[in-house]
Amino acid sequence: xxxxxxxxxxxGRLKDxxxxxxxxxxxxxxxxxxxxxxxxxxSFEHAKAIQDYYLSGMDNNRRGLLSYxxxxxxxxxxxxxxxxxxxxxxxxxxPQAEGKIFATLEDYLAWWQxxxxxxxxxxxxxxxxxxxxxxxxxxxxxxxAVIDAIExxxxxxxxxxxxxxxxxxxxRPPSAPAAAPASETTPAAVAFPNPKSQRRPVAIEPLLQxxxxxxxxxxxxxTFLGGDTEGRKAKYQQLNxxxxxxxxxxxxxxxxxxxxNAGIDSFSLPFTLTNAEYIGIQDPVILTxxxxxxxxxxPEQLNVLVNKAFNLASLQRKDNQDKKLALLFWNxxxxxxxxxxxxxxxxxxxxxxxxxxxxxxxxxxxxxxxxIIDAVAAMLKPSYRPDHLDELMxxxxxxxxxxxxxxxxxxxLPEEVQSEINGYWGEANNYAxxxxxxxxxxxxxxxxxxxxLIIMPQPSRGGNDPSQDKDIFHDVKVPMHxxxxxxxxxxxxxxxxxxxxxFGTHGSQEWLPGKERGLWAYDA
Length: 524
Fold this sequence. Notes:
This protein is of the alpha/beta class.
């Protein structure tokens, strides 16, 4: 049984029946180190062999277990049964390797290149840290799906479980490779949960290194975060690559997940979001749901996870001068003449930010405070006086998204999402703020352009009705307006921003409908 309470439940259900069994009896208790094996009516040698097959897991060992039991019961020669294949202490998994776990990165890369007939060095390298129990227990559906998605996106997957000490933050044996210099944790506010200054050797995971060089561009973390947060924090800081967090919806199935407004229940928070945020892991993505006891991947969530990883990998390779940024400032309290975000001086702050971006090598020209004040006033005016939209269109402070392009994208959304938006706001072609431009109907997108940076107001939640916007600003049930969605679509698909900056204390996007935590791919 996997846990002591499972074992107790089995024994309680069978009660005295176990005592009456005359056949060989083996009780394997994986999580009870004090008594991991109990047996009766057979020798320790045979009981231990059965335990080894069971605990080693994987299909080949399960076949070996059944063969061993068959040979034992028939009195056949047990030496003819293949010995259990132990998982190496740290290894790389791939479903096409036919049960083989690669103990070194070099072996895996050589096999993968031969299998794929392609040079891994031309790929984005997406690594996933997982636990060996997923492999030994044959719970690999989500691992296989991630590997397949990475390869279909022309990337190199490295799905590995670490050596037993490499991720713990504890010292490695003297012979362990690639030990980085020891780093000192900061006392008091930084250490968790009981602050204490200590020197902690940090070792880079050898399964991610080739010739002492880190080859992974992005790391996905698919493991329990309940222990040694300080060690993990130091470890991931040493990796110096983006780290994304995979979460599993273990409580129920896909339908239940969709209906769950919480997304991640409060009981799970300490071991999912709290520890992850302290460690510094980004963007939790619910990847699987519990389908009859098996954790199966959700296709749209898998797409979100893998797309995030590849976008981050691409961003790492881009020079700052080639990166395109979109900055949406939050205007609160709402008002045509206000240019603040809850006491933030937006124009002066943007003047400094544009100057700092240029110093960091971004293709951005510094924008003077007064220029920003004038531009923001022109961009905000139509939000509060829709009949003045033509004045904005007489300036250079706008772009255009064709209605046809928006509708084509909108049709790709799940029907329930389309129905929710159309049911509240009507269809997009009835939006009162549409304009005719070069023979097409579409949306006016206010923006100030400075090189590879655009500055724009965050769209109002009420479309072109300023009075309604004020009423629903913090309403978590009202769906986003077509215009709201159109602005973000234009940023992503037409302007093709590499990153979005939400500028201000917070913005209206945080109050859109959807799960509180563990967002669905189509949550607003």
